[in-house]
Structures are given as C-alpha cells and as structure tokens.
Amino acid sequence: QSCDECGTVTCTGCNPRKPTDYGEVVTLSTHRDWISCCSINLARNYGGACTPGYVYETTERTQHSGRGYCEVEEHGSGRSCSIKTRWQNRGLEGADCEFTIKQKRVCN
Predict the structure, then answer these.
(1) Please, what's the b/e burial string for 37-62 (b: 16 or more CB within 10 A of its CB; e: otherwise)?
(2) Dihedral, CA of residue 64, residue 85, residue 91 and residue 67, to nearest 10
(3) Is the N or the C terminus of the chain less surrounded, counting Cβ atoms within 10 Å?
(4) How far apart are the first and last CA of the chain?
(5) Which is nearest to 91 in space by CA: 75, 68, 108?
(6) Per-residue pLDDT at 44
(7) Is the pLDDT of residue 1 over 70?
(8) What are phi and psi of 11, to 5 degrees?
(9) DSSP-derived secondary structure for 13-82
C-alpha cells in the first residue's frame, strides 16, 4: 500500500490522511493603510504566522489612490505569513494601499 504525500503507511492504512482542502489558497488577512506628504520613506510589517496546516502563498497589492510608492519588499516563506512593505512619497503625493496575504493548505 502507498500513501499520499501527507501520510505514512500504518497497520490501519494511511495516517494522517491528506486534508480534503489540500492545495486550496485562502485569504489569511487584508491590511489597508496610507501615507500622506512629505519626505516619507518607511517600512511597515503586516501578517504573522500562517494558520496551522498552511504555508505562505502570495500577497496581492491594490493601490486605491495616490501616486506614492507602496510595494512588498519581503514576502513570507514557509509557515511565516509575515510581509514587509516599503512606503515612499512621490513629490507631494501619498498612497492608499491594501495588501491581501494568501496562504495555501498543506499537510498538517
């Protein structure tokens, strides 16, 4: 007998079994923030540990307004769903941005 990537063969079958939602990508958290004027250049951290049984997948960025700069500088990795973002003005322009952190279901 063989088991999927989540389990090992035991006398009673595979233990543990692959979760039914294995591979599904879900939103862990959404963070909306903004900067205004002037001479701003800062880092902001969002997120934290992924939910047990999940790993970091990606972060989606939406800029709602402003011509300022807001980008993901460091992505999460493994079971850490923490991100570091960089915020900067462009002239007198600030930025209103939203970051949505996604995680993927894996073995427990």
Answers:
(1) eeeeeeebebbeebeeebbbbebeee
(2) -20
(3) N
(4) 21
(5) 68
(6) 96
(7) no
(8) -60, -25
(9) EEESPPPTTTT-EEEEEEEEEEE-SSS-EEEEEE--BPPTTEEEEEEEEEEEE-SSEEEEEE--BTTB--
Rounded CA-CA distance 83/97 in Å is 14
- The pLDDT tens digits for 28-84 are 999 999 998 788 899 999 999 999 999 999 999 999 999 899 999 999 999 999 999
Q: Is 35 left (phi over 0), alpha (psi -120 to 50) or beta?
A: beta
pLDDT at 108 over 80: no
Whether the Cβ atoms of residue 82 and residue 46 lie closer than 8 Å to each other: yes
Give the CB-side neighbour count of residue 105, counting CA atoms within 13 A.
9
